[in-house]
């Protein structure tokens, strides 16, 4: 297996690395590529920052190891290689009455990536995190493969779930799919007038899938206005699929200037009638709305963008409101801002979720935005919350102190698995997750 020196980036395109990359197509080639040393792995690089970056090192691209190995309809357990994309599973199994139990906001995320970040979805308040539905996984090391299960090897499983790939190369997984009555989504959309109403609606929602788009430019009495979407899987008439588009070039900075974003957000808010509405959508349109626009990250221009995403406890909602006020006054927000209610479900020592509210806002890569996000990270920490490593590109080691109380437990397991630190990525190094050594 050959190594190719390549410059690459996370999805936000603000952070870059140059590394030697190998792309094995079979497990034999994967083990040959690893030789006698551990090497970090990556998938489709949909983490926004440097979670997949290994500047000056070597990394294995797992995207060609993308085979669906087997499915048991009696149990709903699907076995796949780590490079399989979540959207591919949804497309293949929804017509058969099954869906991944948890799906992130992009169908391009690989199963290996979903495990490494223990991703959450629009149903976290009911279903918990991705790895809570993983029955077992296989980890590759230079000495061979090991099966890891929540019951048989709980510490190693918890260190791998959300563990940023630091326990070994995730080769495959067995995951339990969820029953669904059909391959369309019945979605109820409602305008939400302000912050207080949004939280009340999120708290009161009994829908299986719930997500809020929030106008992060609105201020004053309109602060926190947005659109609440509540969805259920269904069957019946399949809506016409919209043709995918592509962003062919890096957009000029004016494309997401403050006046343009404000105008867009106002129009987007009004697209839902004041009385609300119920619509039928293809499943991928609901779960992966931005996947219809290939290379949408180029809308932020050549410099890329950053995302701030945090979760705070239910009792810290006022602190989250204060963060949104700062964002709205700054004029730096893009149209991409999401508010969700989270449950307590999490599978790993470094899993992001906690019982509370999560806010995610994209901002262009400017000095003003970087400064604001760093301040917001500190506010989230001081409110008893935490940031999401899958989206982070700006936090410092001192910022995350106390955010993840089980960090020391994770370090113990990772130290046993990779004592020489060969799996360390740029994110792990930047945040000193494995210590200062």
List its traits:
437 residues; alpha+beta; Vanillyl-alcohol Oxidase, Chain A, domain 3; eight-stranded antiparallel beta sheet; six-stranded antiparallel beta sheet; 25% helix; globular; flavoprotein; FAD-bd_PCMH; oxidoreductase activity, acting on the CH-OH group of donors, oxygen as acceptor; FAD binding; FAD
How would you summarize the topology of this molecule?
Elements (H helix, E strand, L loop, with lengths): L3 E6 L6 E7 L4 H8 L6 E2 L15 E4 L6 E5 L4 E5 L4 H8 L4 E3 L10 H7 L6 H4 L6 E8 L2 E5 L5 H7 L8 E11 L4 E9 L2 H10 L4 E6 L11 E9 L10 E2 L11 H13 L6 E6 H5 L5 E2 L10 E9 L3 H14 L6 E6 L13 E9 L2 H16 L3 E2 L19 H11 L8 H5 L7
Parallel strand pairs: 2-4, 3-4, 14-16
Antiparallel strand pairs: 1-2, 5-6, 6-10, 7-10, 8-9, 8-10, 11-13, 11-15, 12-13, 12-18, 17-19, 17-20, 18-19
Helix pairs in contact: 5-11, 9-10
Description of the structure:
By secondary structure, the chain is of the alpha+beta class. The chain has a domain at 184-400: Vanillyl-alcohol Oxidase, Chain A, domain 3. The chain is built from twelve helices and 20 strands. It has helices at 27-34, 86-93, 111-117, 124-127, 154-160, 195-204, 258-270, 283-287, 317-330, 367-382, 407-417, 426-430, and strands spanning 4-9, 16-22, 41-42, 58-61, 68-72, 77-81, 98-100, 134-141, 144-148, 169-179, 184-192, 209-214, 226-234, 245-246, 277-282, 293-294, 305-313, 337-342, 356-364, 386-387. The strands form four sheets. Strands 15-11-13-12-18-19-17-20 form an eight-stranded antiparallel β-sheet. A hairpin with a 4-residue loop joins strand 5 (68-72) and strand 6 (77-81). Helix 5 (154-160) crosses helix 11 and helix 9 runs antiparallel to helix 10 (367-382). The longest helix has 16 residues, at 367-382. It is globular and about 60 Å long. The two termini are 31 Å apart. 49% of the residues are buried. The mean pLDDT is 95.
